[in-house]
Amino acid sequence: MTTDTFQIAGKTYSSRLLVGTGKYKDFDETRRAIDESDAEIITVAIRRVNIGQDASQPSLLDYLPPSEFTYLPNTAGCYTAEDAIRTLRLARELLDDHTLVKLEVLGDPQTLYPNVRETLKAAEVLVKEGFDVMVYTSDDPIIARELEQIGCCAIMPLASLIGSGMGILNPWNLRLIIEQSKVPVLVDAGVGTASDAAIAMELGCDGILMNTAIAGARDPIRMARAMKLAVEAGRDAFLAGRVPKKLYSGDPSSPITGLISGTK
Description:
By secondary structure, the chain is an alpha/beta fold. It is 36% helix and 16% strand. The strands form 3 sheets. Strands 5-4-3-10-9 form a 5-stranded parallel sheet. Strands 6-7-8 form a 3-stranded parallel sheet, covered by helices on one side. It has a two-stranded antiparallel ribbon with strand order 1-2. Helix 4 (116-128) packs parallel to helix 5 (141-150) and helix 5 (141-150) packs parallel to helix 6.
């Protein structure tokens, strides 16, 4: 078992892979994928997934009990600060005063790009109300710094657009955010396959949140396992420290002195 743990809002976690609960064919498949991923934190869209809002329908809580997982209610589908704040207040009631939340305020329904002005407004209110806010945002280092100054407990810049599977489009901005942040930085949105996850972790991200990359795969259960391994491999590579890239310069993997001679 790894000892390379990290903390969010004062709680320690071993798995750096956070997994969404939407887009699976049913709650049974959701549970199987989560188990295969080894995720400890699972995110749920309060406006789309039943966690008690509709007593006549199956509840995710029956398949993924809060006693086994840390729930991360999110504001997917919200386009204003007011709507996001209202949604997370509801989540706190449904989950017995649960305070760890994921804030996302979207700019438009086509790109799902974050509206950073509304995100900043919502973050200020939620932090003052005692929420532990993990926040989805653009890969703008200045906005990321402002959100941390407001009091967000984790910064979650996008790798690329939500559900696009395009991978990391701007690794330089991610590095800037990672290097300046004193709270965990987790890539959120855009991961498409295992190599994307590994690259994010090699850059120094503290973790990754994904949903579509697993739920939308041809075999979600197998992809969940692949993502688990990719996150672990990328983290190990980051900690190990890669060899520097050398433009126009080779470096033999074997010694060039003391060679064995075939002549007498």
